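Review form for a predicted model. The reviewer records the input and the model, then writes brief findings.
Reviewer: anonymous (R2)
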Amino acid sequence: MRLSTLVIDGEEKAAVITNNGAISIETINQQFQQRFETRIFEIIQSNRLTQLTDWYDAKDSEELEQVCEVIPREQLRYAPLYKHPGKIWGIGLNYVEHASDLSEKAPNSEPASFMKPDTTIIGYNDTIQVPLQSERTTAEAELGIIIGQECKDISEEDAQSVVAGYTTIIDMTAEDILQRNPRYLTRSKSFDTFFSFGPELVTPDEVEDVHKLNVSTIINGKVHRKNVVANMTFRPWDLVSFHSKVMTLLPGDIISTGTPGAVVIRDGDIVECQIDGFTPLINKVEDLKVTKAKNQADKAVTQN
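Model under review:
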């Protein structure tokens, strides 16, 4: 099953993505006398995602589309899957090739992880803003893991059992700030708009083998860097297990697993995260320095 958060009648609501568009959970509840939560974060937190998935899989998709109002694909307005996860873990330099981009040595004994605030969150087609403080900001396509159950000290073998699903992520870094001093990592990762995720939560039953997925960073329609999850230094189940031994993982927590390659973004660029079989995540770029200069020029013309 694939879930998205859509803007419907001015409100953000969970919807199931179908062959021809989307059906809101609210409509499913009305037509089939169900009581599923109508927001993705609440569905995950209530531990009813598996129940919803089983219910949906037991239904005939054509029957659903005949009974329920279907929002056509061309009319879908995506919002972030949700905006206030308990935690966002990011993983740095998880592909050896990406480490070489930064002239860094890739960690090989433990993941190089960091945390991001929820104020960084944006969604599909939202605008990434290059901050005034940065001359070199990069965008990084990544596979996201969404935690579905509270867990602590879980083994690598059991880690898959606590995963709610996967998503596409574009993570940003003010790279010039980071390169001044590695202790500036949190600041370089935490500007507003520096974490885009969605547009779909893809449940595990839709992914035959997560390790075979290709992840691509795309800039203005061209592949900048592509790699397969199997080439990560620390693979998904290792990451879930490792971080559960640091702190309790909660439903809705996100682990962004690292990028095959970061690309410098500039005003007017279009950046994408493409993962095999997933709907691409696409964001446009605005450099706030360029916007500020234009505003100042317009103001000067007006005053003259």
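Findings: The chain has a mean pLDDT of 94.
Further findings: The longest strand covers residues 163-174.
Recommendation: see findings above.
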